[in-house]
Amino acid sequence: MRMFATLKPLAWENAFFGQQSALLELQGETPLDIAALDDWPLVQVKVLAQQSAELDALSALGFSMVEGEADCVLGITPAERPTGIRIARAEHIPALRQAASEAFIWSRFRAPWFAAGDSGRFYAQWIENAVRGTFDHQCLLAVDEQGAMQGFVSLRELEDRTARIGLLAVLPAYQGLGIGQRLMDAANDWCRARRLTRLHVATQLGNLAALRLYLRCGGVIERTAYWLYRKMP
């Protein structure tokens, strides 16, 4: 099939990972220049699950499916402020970096597409940036009665009076104790205090625990998509 698309260099990612990668955006009025794909060692593309013709065409061009993604939306509801929630500060960054690097090792930034350890390093930087208010605007911690960190969630306010969860994770020792629910309650409270209307969150299709949490909290799946990569030998 004939596809209309543009290739855009991923400047921040390329600097961080030390490789040359481009994002293929399936939109616009310019026909895809197939030869231009060979100019990039790695090309990434995100395709809606219902775009079966595009998925087939990209597969024929050498793209491989890397992961599926579900995007959920939740309404902001009146509720009591959850206990045991703190705003992450600079002193929490080392522990947060370690926790994030261990929680997200199987993301789409994993080997063989990226170097071993790149995924953990990427998300460690993400959560540090959230604490510092860069990209995501804030990071909240769930803590126990002694103040020990149990989990974290980062949040970003968007221009349309909505928000998006960047990262959410519960430390292994505290899983199964309702910490994820408390973090979602904290995210809801954060949005309510800012008079926001909706909260978005995305997760891997294979992350059933996260999907169950978001649906249990009233989330609705807005869309599903696949990330595909084309890597030159």
Automatic annotation (TrEMBL):
Active-site residues per Swiss-Prot or TrEMBL entry: Y214
Cited InterPro entries: AcTrfase_WecD, Acyl_CoA_acyltransferase, Bact_Acetyltransf, GNAT_dom
Residues covered by the N-acetyltransferase domain: 83-233
GO biological process: enterobacterial common antigen biosynthetic process
Positions annotated to bind acetyl-CoA: N207
Stored PROSITE patterns: GNAT
Keywords: Acyltransferase, Transferase
Subunit details: Homodimer.
Protein name (Swiss-Prot/TrEMBL): dTDP-fucosamine acetyltransferase
Organism: Pantoea coffeiphila
Species lineage: Bacteria, Pseudomonadati, Pseudomonadota, Gammaproteobacteria, Enterobacterales
Name of the encoding gene: wecD
